[in-house]
Amino acid sequence: MRGKAGSAKTIIFLCIGCFVAGTIFTGQMWSSGPANHEDHVLLPLKRDCDHKRKLIEGKPGDVMEEVSNTHQAIKSLDKTVATLEMELKAARTSQSGGKHLRQRASSNYNLQKAFVVIGINTAFSSKKRRDSIRQTWLPKGNEVKELEREKGIVIRFMIGHSSTEGGILDKGIDAEEAEHKDFLRLDHVEGYHELSSKTRLFFSTVVSMWDADFYVKVDDDIHLNLGMLVSTLAKYRSRPRVYIGCMKSGPVLYQKGVKYHEAEHWKFGEEGNKYFRHATGQLYAISKDLATYISINWPILHRYANEDVSLGSWLLGLEVEHVDERSMCCGTPPDCDWKARTGNVCVASFDWSCSGICKSVERMKDIHKACGEGDGAVWNVDL
């Protein structure tokens, strides 16, 4: 090596040259490579920023339109999800919970489409009341079934069984059913203080048997004009969640021993407070969605002392339209008579003092003659 100084210098210069060339080449790679990657990553962000910048720099109406469209899309999605959830729960009920309800009801009934299902609340001791209804506003004989087939109007006296099931009281209803075929038997022990349970079970049962637009409960000491009832309900057919009746807000009775005593009065505030708005118990109607809700949730729906209060409480926290229909609580003659003469035929008539028609068995025919709409009225209603 010492003898070849020129060669050594040449090698050193070559090494330095290679190092410099390598440094330059590597620097170019680092400067070009990451820049392309950054452009690729930031491209969507740049587009999003451009979109937001255009909204901000554009007209205020453009921004509001964008917000409104997003809000409407969210609301539409929420409604769709809620509807699907209810349909899913209803399907599950019909397959599981609804199965035992159908088994407990009469095997003569099959699930069918209807406009309205009317349940006339009755008791073992009320045979004369039932007969007074059969002789007045209830269609006669086979007309009940014809009305069901042609108009989709289902009418049944609803009743449970006695504490000694199969006893003389139940056999009496069996004989009456064999004659008239107008009963709906519920798996329920009859009793005055069990009306909330009976109402809850009624809606749960009929939803599993009839696919109706409306479900109605009426007492057996009320005069009813079927044509006017159906016409009134038809006005609300397109509304999904309606609760129709004579809305009231009576006092919460906290004194023990009085009629309609509310054992849980403390839940409604101080003494002297009133109940929330709810339909009076003589007659009310609810739409299909609400009846389905009761059918799905009936095991956990709380029962207060009064049946009409219980129903009102079940619907209170829902998106429900309360319809205060005063023609469903007319007085007996001369009130309903005068209204009928002026062309304002009442849906229902009773006496507030009796929470029904006082001495209904004796008076039902006279009230029907004075305030009835005519036997053919219900057949002329266009549904």
Automatic annotation (TrEMBL):
Keywords: Glycosyltransferase, Golgi apparatus, Manganese, Membrane, Signal-anchor, Transferase, Transmembrane, Transmembrane helix. It holds the Pfam family DUF4094. The keyword Magnesium does not apply. Pathway: Protein modification; protein glycosylation. GO terms for cellular component: Golgi membrane. The chain crosses the membrane at residues 12-30. It is a single-pass type II membrane protein. Its EC number is 2.4.1.-. Gene3D superfamilies: 3.90.550.50. Its cofactor is Mn(2+). It is found in: Golgi apparatus membrane. Its main location: Golgi. InterPro entries: DUF4094, Glyco_trans_31. One of its GO terms (molecular function) is galactosyltransferase activity. Belongs to the glycosyltransferase 31 family. This is Hexosyltransferase.
